[in-house]
């Protein structure tokens, strides 16, 4: 008969073996991803050294892009943020700000700054969103459209822009984010290299805390003075330049940040746009794109591009950071449960793995 002490010793030993094995598995996975990311970065740097991305201004080959920015009660920053979006270099773009039922002066400040005029544009009657009240166009910046609608949340606002635009691609961005002026040109590059296969691309997100921002443009970068934000700078570098870059090389990227991603408009319409019943709509959308393409047995690419950068404020308090991360992990669990049939299924290739 085994004594309680021997049983406990055996249990501890087995637990040690399990956790050691798990540790080795996880870190081997990270090591492989880092090697792939390093290879991807080197190839990207070599291409940029000997060959320009492409002639950016006025090129007839650039696909049209709609930059869609949902805005809810963003009165304090909306003018500067829209100014930043309008300053992004791209030959064929339209900026669509979706005023998602704001209760503050968001719309009034946009109207005062950009002289909004109602237009008689016809939009789909079956648009899958809350009611669209009116569509406006700026008299001082023709590429700026403002969609005024009833409140329905971020996913609902993005869907309004997706169904209204006639552009081949759309760029989903947070209204409080700032895109590098060349960022859109660079993130669209995979669509030029493989126009039939590429369905989605994303860029890196950096912390704007501590940066000198003037008129919606980042003038200089400085590390945040807040220690919690400082840690997140390192975390974001690891996540984007190791994890996502490595997964992108494997064509196994399952998330493109909601702060900066470009998608084929027709593909996203085919799958019904963003879902409203999840807290991480960006993760869910990319998973459904993978599912749609794999089940249709088509060659496709979902890529992360290292060069383009979008700047956003990161939490500087434990309470705010905790609320953000709880939402992220809740969304991760929701997505894993919703798409659990993809896990380990060979039909979904490396994404299923």
Helix and strand pattern? HEHEHEEEHEEHHEEEHEHHEHH
CATH architecture name: Alpha-Beta Complex
CATH topology: Spore Coat Polysaccharide Biosynthesis Protein SpsA, Chain A
Number of domains: 1
Radius of gyration: 22 Å
- How much helicity do the residues have? 40-55%
Order of strands in the sheet with the most strands?
3-4-5-2-1-6-11-8-12-7
Instruction: Please summarize the sheet with the most strands.
Output: 10 strands, mixed
Strand content: 15-25%
Count up the helices.
11
Mean pLDDT: 88
Which regions are unreliable across 5 or more consecutive residues at pLDDT < 50?
none
What is the approximate shape?
A: globular
Structural class: alpha/beta
**First-residue to last-residue Cα separation:** 43 Å
CATH-defined superfamily: Spore Coat Polysaccharide Biosynthesis Protein SpsA, Chain A
Walk me through the structure.
The protein has 353 residues and is of the alpha/beta class. It has one domain (63-352): Alpha-Beta Complex (Spore Coat Polysaccharide Biosynthesis Protein SpsA, Chain A). It contains 11 helices and 12 strands. The protein has helices spanning 4-50, 78-87, 106-114, 154-164, 183-187, 189-193, 227-249, 265-270, 281-295, 318-338, 349-352, and strands at residues 65-71, 93-100, 116-118, 132-138, 144-149, 169-173, 178-179, 198-207, 212-214, 217-220, 260-264, 301-312. The strands form 2 sheets. Strands 3-4-5-2-1-6-11-8-12-7 form a 10-stranded mixed β-sheet, with helices on both faces. Strands 9-10 form a two-stranded antiparallel ribbon. β4 (132-138) and β5 form a beta hairpin. α1 (4-50) packs across α7.
């Amino acid at each position: 008969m085994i004594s309680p002490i021997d049983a406990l010793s055996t249990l501890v030993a087995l637990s040690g073996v399990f956790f050691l094995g798990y540790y080795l598995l996880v870190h081997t996975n990270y090591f492989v991803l880092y090697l792939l990311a390093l290879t991807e970065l080197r190839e990207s740097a070599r291409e940029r050294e000997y060959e320009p991305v492409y002639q950016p201004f006025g090129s007839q080959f650039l696909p049209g892009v709609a930059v869609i920015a949902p805005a809810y009660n963003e009165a304090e920053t909306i003018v500067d943020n829209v100014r930043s979006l309008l300053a992004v270099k791209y030959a064929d773009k339209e900026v669509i700000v979706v005023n998602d039922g704001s209760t503050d002066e968001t719309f009034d400040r946009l109207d005062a700054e950009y002289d909004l005029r109602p237009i008689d544009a016809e939009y789909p009657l079956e648009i899958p969103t809350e009611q669209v009240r009116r569509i406006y166009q700026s008299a001082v910046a023709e590429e700026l459209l403002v969609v005024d609608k009833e409140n329905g949340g971020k996913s609902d606002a993005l869907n309004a822009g997706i169904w209204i635009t006639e552009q081949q691609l759309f760029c989903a961005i947070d209204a409080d984010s700032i895109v590098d002026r060349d960022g859109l040109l660079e993130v669209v590059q995979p669509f030029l290299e493989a126009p039939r296969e590429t369905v989605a691309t994303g860029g890196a997100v950096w912390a704007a805390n501590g940066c000198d921002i003037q008129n919606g443009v980042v003038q200089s970068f400085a590390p945040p003075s807040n220690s919690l934000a400082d840690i997140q700078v390192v975390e974001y570098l690891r996540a984007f330049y190791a994890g996502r870059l490595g997964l992108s090389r494997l064509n196994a990227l399952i998330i493109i940040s909601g702060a900066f991603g470009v998608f084929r408009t027709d593909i996203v319409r085919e799958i019904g746009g963003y879902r409203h019943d999840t807290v991480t709509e960006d993760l869910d959308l990319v998973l459904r794109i993978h599912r749609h393409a794999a089940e249709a047995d088509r060659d496709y690419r979902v890529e992360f591009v290292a060069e383009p950068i979008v700047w956003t404020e990161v939490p500087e308090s434990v309470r705010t950071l905790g609320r953000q991360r709880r939402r992220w992990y809740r969304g991760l669990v929701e997505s894993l449960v919703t798409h659990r049939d993809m896990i380990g299924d060979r039909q979904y290739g490396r994404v299923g793995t």
